[in-house]
């Protein structure tokens, strides 16, 4: 079974290594070993554990080689990886990829193309690193009617939030520490902005809800604005703050959103610490299922790629592709953002004088928002300022946004600080 | 696709119901619907949601009907289920079963027979109820070198232990409550003795370690002897008590054991409460993976059966069975029981007089057991008795057993209470 790698970075090298180690077992399972014919790299002279003999910088040596039946894409990024995958499929090659961005944005199109060309496209490694989540949802939960997904899909942001809480430190200092330890990229934008989680929840919800969810349609808010003050308020109220990727279905309408979320401290997802990921499915007949594990890293990713490689090799050897489409059962529609419903935590400073809380409460009441609790914990006597924290009952996002814009116009408002959504 | 059920009890009826509801989706996925031809029951006149027309009490109407391609066994128990499954496979029928006992005891033989006859045998529903654990370990973790499995596989015992801790109640009163609520069987022997967990860990470790583990070779201790006093000592020391099913591999030697186990309160498995199950895999390259969910119940079991039914139907329609053997990679040997190593919690009453602790410590020292901590918490002045709790460092089981038999012979021993193994 001749295969080619697109990419020879950390993941490519980890995969190279595990294939060398496991090739005798692969032979026993498949009836033949894997033979890595070529590895596409940008820079031929960079030091790698892959011998130079295998390296090439010419994509056609893999994409147009009729001997190579299976292409493994581990370059990352949208281009040129997307064009390469497309060309491989057009040339009737099976493809395995770890690329969440490409599957989230182009997955539907590529799966249809693969079906047309009679080949498979595997993407187990695109979400959840070493957690076998794609197989679980595609096959294990195949006829489930999943109602909700609650997930922690980005290790970097979970590491930052966990460490802010444990070490009582601000975002920027923990981010710097995470970069020094290699848990955050030099450019951490995709992680901390929630974009990485958006790609991953787009893939999971396309699978769970049998439809095509585009990343651009998913509401996204990053963790940049989370302060230690909010984390400590949350803690004192019995909550943890996590960057949750949420998907909920109700009467065929979907809400999918990625944002910092307060969840009860005794919720199982609160116990997910550091760079780990976890995915909770709620299904009426099956109950609550959780999968937990390391969300990233070259070795876990290589193991996920390997399970796909084995499965697709089996399909190739038996000329028996197992087609898969996102939208194979029924389509669902995304709710307009204003129609989502949840609880909210609001924090802001106002002038400390009589009647202020009444003005706030009036605005909330006029927008059909009922207050679950109010904390006025600290007053700054010198500046005559007071800090107010409000927890609401369930309400519509459109109501809260309208109320906040009205509160922000009040002359008594000194500083607006935080809005954090709460799920219980 | 004509199928037959062996069994029309709670699980059979839940499966009947879900197939009726999902048959249009099944048609879309498979290209044809499932057609349940016959359901074997003992008592034809018992009220059921399955119409009488489908019921039969003659096994041959399913096992010898050439039109039925797939047989679903949901009777439970070893016989006659085992003979029926064997006959179905001999008649070249694909089989799906929820029967942990049969897979644990006869799985290896039945998988070999299935391969010989060119059919598949599915057993997703045999372990972990609604958790897609068999697929995860067979396919998702296919080339993993699993080093350890830590698992909670029995909902009844986990419910009892959780409730003893939460409600500060003794075993017998919680067992009675569990029976009243339907969380424990009228005859709870297989659950509380650990036998149910033994069947399940036999299956998981046969898959994980690519070998055939027989239930009779697994060390087993039930939860009958766990007292509230031990649970409260454990709590004060920072531990929870769980009925763990453990499997560990070291240099090709296996230890597999089911017994009440003290685990740290901040361990993720400590958070598994009530009737839930969880399975933790430790693998060097992949890291720690946990799957969590409801461990039993007719509906979760029906969903697990359904995923197998869909997969095997696909194989039947494409004349393409995917054979599976336990021992497909390399064999491993079980360690003798005395060779396992762990930490221990010991509790007993002695006469309260000088030099008593020295006698105990001498015995432990002579058996190469080093003490991690000693608590002498309560003294009964009237009876001149003292209660001693000892936590040991890691030692061999054979050493601890020898030491205990010597301690039990000491004239100063008043009452021997507890030995609980500790894993951290």
Summary tags:
homodimer; 13 helices; Alpha-Beta Plaits; Dihydrodipicolinate Reductase, domain 2; 37% helix; alpha/beta; 424 residues; Rossmann fold
The total count of helices of chain A amounts to 13
Report the major sheet of chain A. Answer: 13 strands, mixed
Broad CATH class of the largest domain in chain A:
Alpha Beta
Mean pLDDT of chain A: 93
Distance between the termini of chain A: 50 Å
The total of beta strands of chain A comes to: 19
Named at the architecture level, the CATH assignment of the largest domain in chain A is 2-Layer Sandwich
Q: Fill in the CATH topology of the largest domain in chain A.
A: Dihydrodipicolinate Reductase, domain 2
Helix content of chain A: 25-40%
CATH superfamily of the largest domain in chain A: Dihydrodipicolinate Reductase, domain 2
Whole-number count of domains of chain A: 3
Helix/strand/pairing category of chain A: alpha/beta
Description:
With 424 residues, the first copy, chain A, is an alpha/beta fold. The first copy, chain A, folds into 3 domains: 2-129 and 298-317, NAD(P)-binding Rossmann-like Domain (Rossmann fold, 3-Layer(aba) Sandwich), CATH 3.40.50.720; 133-294, Dihydrodipicolinate Reductase, domain 2 (2-Layer Sandwich), CATH 3.30.360; 337-422, Alpha-Beta Plaits. Chain A is 37% helix and 26% strand. Chain A contains 13 helices and 19 strands. Chain A has helices at 10-30, 60-63, 81-90, 100-117, 133-140, 155-167, 171-181, 189-192, 195-209, 228-236, 298-317, 356-366, 397-409; strands spanning 2-6, 35-40, 55-56, 70-73, 94-97, 121-122, 146-152, 219-220, 239-250, 253-264, 276-283, 287-294, 333-334, 341-351, 371-375, 379-380, 385-392, 395-396, 413-422. In chain A, the strands form 2 sheets. In chain A, strands 7, 8, 9, 10, 11, 12, 13, 14, 15, 16, 17, 18 and 19 form a 13-stranded mixed beta sheet that branches. In chain A, strands 3-2-1-4-5-6 form a 6-stranded parallel beta sheet, with helices on both faces. In chain A, helix 4 (100-117) packs parallel to helix 9 (195-209), helix 6 crosses helix 7 (171-181) and helix 12 packs antiparallel against helix 13 (397-409). The radius of gyration of chain A is 24 Å and the shape is elongated. The mean pLDDT of chain A is 93. Strand 12 (287-294) of chain A pairs antiparallel with strand 12 of chain B.
């Amino acid at each position: 079974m001749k295969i080619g790698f697109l990419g020879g970075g950390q993941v490519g090298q980890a995969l190279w290594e595990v294939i060398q180690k496991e090739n005798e077992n692969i032979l026993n399972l498949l009836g033949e070993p894997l033979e890595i014919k070529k590895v596409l790299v940008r820079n031929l002279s960079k030091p790698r554990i892959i011998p130079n003999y295998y390296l090439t910088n010419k994509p056609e040596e893999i994409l147009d080689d009729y001997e190579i039946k299976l292409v493994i894409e581990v370059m990352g990024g949208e281009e040129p990886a997307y064009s390469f995958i497309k060309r491989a499929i057009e040339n009737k090659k099976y493809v395995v990829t770890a690329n969440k961005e490409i599957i989230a944005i182009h997955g539907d199109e590529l799966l249809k193309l693969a079906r047309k060309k009679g080949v498979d496209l595997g993407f187990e490694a695109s979400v959840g690193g070493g957690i076998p989540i794609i197989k679980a949802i595609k096959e294990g939960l195949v006829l489930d009617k999943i109602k909700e997904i609650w997930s922690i899909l980005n290790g970097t942001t979970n590491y930052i939030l966990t460490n802010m809480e444990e070490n009582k430190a601000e975002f920027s200092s923990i981010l710097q520490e995470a970069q020094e330890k290699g848990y955050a990229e030099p450019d951490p934008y995709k992680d901390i902005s929630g974009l990485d989680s958006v790609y991953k929840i787009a893939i999971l919800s396309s699978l769970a809800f049998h439809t095509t969810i585009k990343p651009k349609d998913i509401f996204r808010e990053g963790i940049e604005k989370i302060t230690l003050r909010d984390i400590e308020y949350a803690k004192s109220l019995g909550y943890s703050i996590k960057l949750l990727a949420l998907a909920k279905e109700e009467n065929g309408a979907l809400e999918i959103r990625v944002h910092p979320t307060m969840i009860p401290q005794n919720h199982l997802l609160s116990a997910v610490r550091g760079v780990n990921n976890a995915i909770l499915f709620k299904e009426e007949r099956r109950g609550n299922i959780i999968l937990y594990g390391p969300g990233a890293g070259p070795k876990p990713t290589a193991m996920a790629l390997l399970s796909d490689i084995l499965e697709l090799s089996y399909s190739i050897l038996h000329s028996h592709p197992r087609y898969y489409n996102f939208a194979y059962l029924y389509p669902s529609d995304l709710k307009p953002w204003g129609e989502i419903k949840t609880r909210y935590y609001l924090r802001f400073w106002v002038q400390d004088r009589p009647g202020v809380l009444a003005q706030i409460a009036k605005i909330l009441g006029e927008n059909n928002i009922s207050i679950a609790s109010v904390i006025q914990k600290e007053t700054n006597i010198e500046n005559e300022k007071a800090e107010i924290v409000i927890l609401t009952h369930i309400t519509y996002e459109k109501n809260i946004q309208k109320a906040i814009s009205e509160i922000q116009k009040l002359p008594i408002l000194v500083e607006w600080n935080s809005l954090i959504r709460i799920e219980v």
